[in-house]
């Protein structure tokens, strides 16, 4: 069944090179409908909340007890892979369907949530789906345009049958009524591959500070006729700023602290920049991540300081644009211990590790829900078409998730 669902998702999202299922787009809608159809075939309960997050539940014997939850997302970045998000959603679906086929009824409800819009590349709002599920989305966020078409979140919600008019009014998840949330996900880096271990037990999720639309404004000028002292070179200012922040990163690591720094976009204007011109404009994005909130604030201060420095040194103007951020999350130590105990019983090798990427699990943890993540080994990183998860590793991770959910739900 797992291969069949992965194949169906591939058919839904394939763009000729990788997977493209935009948040609140046709591909994400079709993926949610696929999960709903399979759940209905197995007699599982199905509901959607006001934001069209999908909830699939196997009822427990005592429905008054706090619910056990698992889940992930099925939207992708542009030209992404077929396992990011989908692996966790499929694992949860497999478990509930298997329990239903075996007529197994847990003591408490067990629910899979397939969240909307986890990939914030489409709407610059972190954890959009899980935040709507808890009623944490401010109403003004509904006017955020999607990056590819400029249509607002509100209108995209309406187009797929959601009810944005109920934002702030509809019933939402109550943390006190959730026993735990466990998210399975592919690892998006090389740690498990290097360790030759199939499953990771996540200790924490990094937070972030980001500038998604920074612009350095200089002055276009003739490349041969303009001496350095007369230049307002946006590219040189950007290069100086990036290298200075990179040196800060090295200093942080030398002090034993953990963070990452990425400039995922750095480009001149293709319509005006050319071989014979001093570049007058540079678009830049800055992405800093760490599990240390104080370190994120320190680095944010350094970004601002470096922006002011290059303005003076290179005669440019730096517009950082709006800052977006997410809060680090700590995973539940009791559940981590349960995972390791179960893994030992099952003969599955695991290692403890942090998550450098953000996940909906961070929202659950931030609301006080006991939360854990399981990583499955994956080659070639993530957010690219070459994600390469072995089915054997996936089934090991899903089996471990099943044992954990069964333990918590019983």
TrEMBL record:
Alphabetical keyword list: Hydrolase
For this protein, what is any one GO molecular function term? hydrolase activity
Which Pfam family, any one, appears in the UniProt record?
Answer: Peptidase_M20
Family matches, as InterPro entries: Amidase_Cbmase (IPR010158), Bact_exopeptidase_dim_dom (IPR036264), Peptidase_M20 (IPR002933)
Q: What is this enzyme's EC?
A: 3.5.-.-
* Superkingdom: Bacteria
- Assigned protein family: Belongs to the peptidase M20 family.
Under what name is this protein listed? Hydantoinase/carbamoylase family amidase
